[in-house]
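re the bet — no i am not wrong, look at it urself. input seq straight from the record:
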Amino acid sequence: MSKTRLSLVVLFLSILSFANAGAAVPSNVNWTTSVEQLSENEGVIRWHAEIKDGWHIYGLKMPSLDTSVPPPTSFDIDSIEGLQLIGEVEASETIENHYDDVLKLNLPWVSGNVTFSQKFKTEPDVTGVTISGTIHYMVCNNESCTPPAHTDFSVVFGKPAKTAVSEPVSVEPADNAPAGVSPVELSEWWEPVEMEKDNISDASRWSIFIFGLLGGFLALLTPCVWPMIPMTVSFFLKKGKNRSRSIADAVTYGLSIVVIYLVLGIALTLIFDAGKLNEIATGAVFNLIFFALLVFFAISFLGAFDIKLPSKWSNKIDSKAESTTGLISIFFMAFTLVLVSFSCTGPIIGTLLVEAASQESILGPALGMGGFALGLALPFALFAFFPSLLKEMPKSGGWLNSVKVVLGFIELILSLKFLSVADLAYGWRILDREVFLSLWIVLFVLLGLYLLGKLRFPHDSQRSHTSVGSFMLAILPLSFAVYLLPGLWGAPLKSISAFAPPLTTQDFNLYGGTFKEFHDYDEGMTYAANNKLPVIVDFSGYACVNCRKMEGAVFDTQRVRDAIENGYILIKLMVDDKERLARPYTVEEYGSTTRIETVGDRWSYLQRHKFGINSQPYYVLLDNAGRPLGPARAYDENVDAFVEWLNKGAEAYNNNSEF
């Protein structure tokens, strides 16, 4: 069997298994891990596999025929100081070769129940060593295979830990326990609590819908969408139906646009799931790619080159719309609009989905894409119903290229937000606040000069004078650039707090006034207990737009600042902090094992485990035992309500004689 054919077969098996599995891979093998102490500092780890009837896992060694041969079963044990492995992993059953009818190969595999063992030793007099790692395996039957999978394990050798493995502080107390605090006290701080939700506001959901609606209206002005207006009018003029039929066709056309975009947004969310989409959105790879894409689109809009989908795609869809009748033809016309406009609407849609992913549910992307589709569909539905409206529309020409260039500037400006997210999450410090603001100031000044006619790009028409309209528009970016200037010296600039890096990244700050805050939960709780003060925990994220809005509109006000500085210890925890932990560990969560590898993973787990929620921003008030002093709060820019919430929490703390 050739290597190429073998690769294709394995690829086909993987795809087939994904299709059969749907959203989740079937559990055809159940792993349990245990450890046996053979002597004071010697032991053996045992991994027991219960394999479902008709299925098998592969051996510890596979033939070196090709990289596409199914992967062997393997056990990765995390490196721990003083831990030495003795020999290799051994299986309790003889793993014999079997003929694989699909791959046409003899491959080693085992079915039924099997136990794998690995001997080890530690330094003398060492107790309570946590040994963790990952099992890698692939499960197959005679017809298909599930995708290569892995499961984490964690066992304690020697004296058992004081608390359950689900408490992260019991897994790594040596790295994270502050001086003078016992693991039992830390466990109390991490103990789950029942939280009353004071104001889980719908404001952020409405903001996503409105943002999508505005994005749809903005897309109407893009050079990809504008040419579709006469095509739409021409299409519906040919139908020549009566008034009631025209209304029905126009509504069908608008609804088709909404449905196509809505399905697109929901499909992307279901493929990745909302939580995974949010995780991807905070990663360096995604943000750097999106930054590069926006810069690429901006350079195109400025006139360096044109981005067009292959004409045969849109022509084929358009001809399909012309050749069909009834509802199908209207749907194909809507699909033509979506396809042709995608090269311009793609960046808007991508930005929208990233913001919507912060909702941690499918509702966010549905609202965002629904708003976008509605904003784009409404004008086209009107054009379909009133073809004569086309006569009132300005003809495309030099003004449309000016709109295109302005959009290019806007995309350059917005691209810096994505670069900033990656920079903050990974702590690179290449785009601190003053650098970010300097770039924005320059771009807004250049945009103002362009509107005044002082800059010309390749496809711009010659202008002998500056029109009154251009002059009035130029005032906006130039004034905004002046507004940004004080930010270079530390001014809070509340209107852009959702986009600019936080003040803590600015080296030069004449305004002062930044909070003293802790970024480690246990450290902050220890400080609060020693100083007899309540705690406000702020679950935030570098990519969280609403978190930046809350900081600018609420936390930077003098009333809130005074209430926190005079009565609380602030602990801000970034759930998307990508800094690696010195010792990754595992926790039991929702019946499965979760691996905690980064600082952000740790704080995200704390929020889920202790408070039962995973959205940001999220604010809780705690006493020195980690118990809530009142209901939690989410995104709400009502300063009076926030101050009242802080005062009630302080009153509850002072009325507790225990503290």
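see?? The longest strand covers residues 42-51. told u. also The chain is about 45% helix and 15% strand. so pay up
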